[in-house]
Amino acid sequence: MDCTTWQRQKIYLIISLKIPEIVENNKHIVSVTRNEKIRRLIMIGSNRILLGIEKFKVRIKNIPQEKIDVTSKSLDLSFEEFVRFQEIKSLAFASGKLTLPESMTIFNYLGDLGPERFNKQPIEVKAVLTQVFSELLTKAAS
Q1: CB neighbourhood size of 99 (10 A)
Q2: Is residue 11 within 8 Å of residue 3, measured between CB atoms?
Q3: Cα–Cα distances in Å, from 90 out to 38, 39, 107?
Q4: Up-side HSE of residue 64: CA atoms within 13 Å toward CB?
Q5: Residue 72 contacts by C-beta under 8 Å, 6 or more apart in sequence?
Q6: What 8-state DSSP symbol labels residue 34?
Q7: Would you say residue 6 has pLDDT above 50?
């Protein structure tokens, strides 16, 4: 299935409005209709978790790697935090605070057997998921 010019323009508009940092070569993105990058960018636009991760990547570009490593280690989860995060995530999905794709994204980054998978994630994933966890805990407490 090939995109019409109007659809390509709409895709570019969505991409450029939501995540302008990702659009490095807009002619390439709009002209290649079956490119995985387009599908990923469209998926990101509807998934607040992935959008946050992409935005965070841009924000940390100029931060020294040593500082990133120290911060990343400080964001590691204990087993108890991991279990609580999974519970809160499931409750947030059940109550409509998270969409299915957002909930599945969190699950995929967290892993299912313990915090080891999450603790190996890059800083942008850890930071965004920690922020989501914090917000969900705050909402659960109120």
Answers
A1: 15
A2: yes
A3: 29, 26, 9
A4: 3
A5: 122, 123, 126
A6: T
A7: no
Question: Where are the chain's structural domains?
Answer: 5-45, 65-141
Average pLDDT, rounded, for the chain: 77
Torsion of CA 23, 103, 99, 126, to 10 degrees: -40
pTM of the full structure: 0.68
> Which residue is associated with the tokens 């911060």?
71
Percent of the chain with pLDDT strictly greater than 70: 68
Residue 32 has pLDDT above 50, yes or no: no
Chain center to CA of 23: 17
**DSSP one-letter code for 3:** P
State the average pLDDT over residues 125-141: 90
Write down the pLDDT at residue 90: 93
Give SS3 for 98: coil
* Residue at 10: amino acid letter: K
**Per-residue pLDDT averaged across 36-50, rounded?**
66
With a CB cutoff of 8 Å and minimum separation 6, the contacts of 107 are 86, 89
For helices 123-141 and 48-59, what crossing angle results, to 10°?
130
